[in-house]
Amino acid sequence: MSSEWLAAIDMGSNSFHLVIARQVDGRLQIVDRLKERVQLAEGLEQTGRLSPEAMARGLACLRLFGERLGDIPRANLRITGTFTLRVASNADLFLTEARALLGHPVEVISGLEEARLIYQGVAHTQHTEGRLLVIDIGGGSTELIIGEEFAPLALTSRKMGCVTFSNHFFGNGRLTDEQFDAAILEAQHQLEPIMTRYRELGWEQCLGSSGTIKAVHELLLAAGRGPQIDQEGLRLLRSQMVAQKRVEQLKLPGLSEDRRPVIAAGVAILLALFDALHIQQMDFSDGALREGSLYSLTERQQHSDIRERTASGLAQMYHIDPAQAARVEATVLGLFDQVADAWGLEVESYRPLLAWAAQLHEVGLVINYSAVQKHSAYLLANSDLPGFNQQEQAFLALMARFQRKAIKRGDFTPIQNHEDEALWRCIRLLRLAVALHHRRQDGVLPPLHLKAKEHKLTLSLPAAWCRDNALLMQNLTREQKYAQELGWELKLRQETESGA
């Protein structure tokens, strides 16, 4: 396949989806969709872990998807993991096997990033007018977004999904009014913190996306209702289910075999949503997370990366010194370019991440200069960073944490999809850039020449400059000591005009 082809895999709690598209005259044309019911979240609530059976189902599905991907370039593929892979204590094991199988990392995204991508998927594939409420009920969580055109105004992800609610409220296989009431009450409890704001914002149109809402939409059509979903139709489905008493005996026109175990929970969550938010009716949208992922890929290729806008917005919010951030960014990228090949650092992945780390390394100054590296790491780890997946956000926080002062290996946290050695090498480059710009002035640094070989860095500087910049040389000498304590070497080579 040529570079015009794009693909996205959505590894949800209930189902895995693959969508393939091609770019035609600046727009995306979907050419294929695959879906497999995996139920990755099955048993998660009881153990907090992915079961061996669920992992086996997930990997078998990814093998099928891998056959369909063909030779789509890595830059044109995005694989996202959602609620279950956010919370499962052994998710790293599954993610490692998935990466080995597909030859591509899986991005575990936050609930808010999931909501943002869902909204983009709906907004780009559905004709809408006015303010829009988008709801997506997944296997482990439900995302709610209010937006206008392509701009979300409110995003939230609530811990209620059709798989987790099925296990908790309908796990005994019975369908009773008492169980529906309990599920609805819990869903309303989950919605309580956002109800006031969402009602105040309001909307002109409500759209539901993904499998649960699609299944309800089809059930109502089969029952002669619709095409909109409304409260009366939802109450009808509830009464029909209660009348049939058992999940395994459930037979409704339009109900597929794979949706039978989780449909009652989906209807209960929808009833809670309609009641809590005073929704009158809901239309179904084919667009969802995977389509949002595809459009995020096209944005990056068109150099309109939301991560750049996020970094810029955060810098403004925390009143970062733009001149100093630009100095550190330019220097760390210059150093990176000189050693990336020798150190085996993937340019496509690490160069932009180091640039954003440099732009944001001083966000902690808004709290205090003392221990700024710890304050910066905390803010970057705990802020909402649209466009960044969890691993990328962890990278920014890690770089900020080790930007200066002594290095404590015990504070280092591994990051999925990244080799520890690569992370340490990025840290060393950022530390050098920060140390070199201690004077916070333009025009101070000479041309920098850096060479790398295994754990050794050699930084060549003009001897005359070294004599005239004792404070900066003191910083670099201190950095030599920090490196030596960890078994690394930083050699400072002073060159005369003749190059000796």
How does this model look, in words?
The protein is an alpha/beta fold. It has three domains: 5-109 and 292-299, 2-Layer Sandwich (Nucleotidyltransferase, domain 5), CATH 3.30.420; 127-285, Exopolyphosphatase. Domain 2 (Nucleotidyltransferase, domain 5, 2-Layer Sandwich); 305-495, Hypothetical protein af1432, CATH 1.10.3210.10. Helix content is 50%, strand content 18%. It is built from 19 helices and 14 strands. The protein has helices at 44-47, 52-69, 83-87, 91-102, 111-125, 162-169, 177-201, 210-222, 231-244, 263-277, 289-301, 306-317, 322-343, 347-360, 372-382, 390-401, 420-436, 463-468, 470-485, and strands at 5-11, 15-24, 27-37, 77-81, 107-108, 131-137, 142-148, 151-158, 205-209, 229-230, 281-285, 449-453, 456-462, 489-495. The strands form three sheets. Strands 8-7-6-9-11-10 form a six-stranded mixed β-sheet, sandwiched between helices. A hairpin with a 4-residue loop joins strand 6 (131-137) and strand 7. Helix 8 (210-222) packs across helix 10 and helix 13 (322-343) packs antiparallel against helix 14. The model has no long low-confidence stretch (mean pLDDT 91).
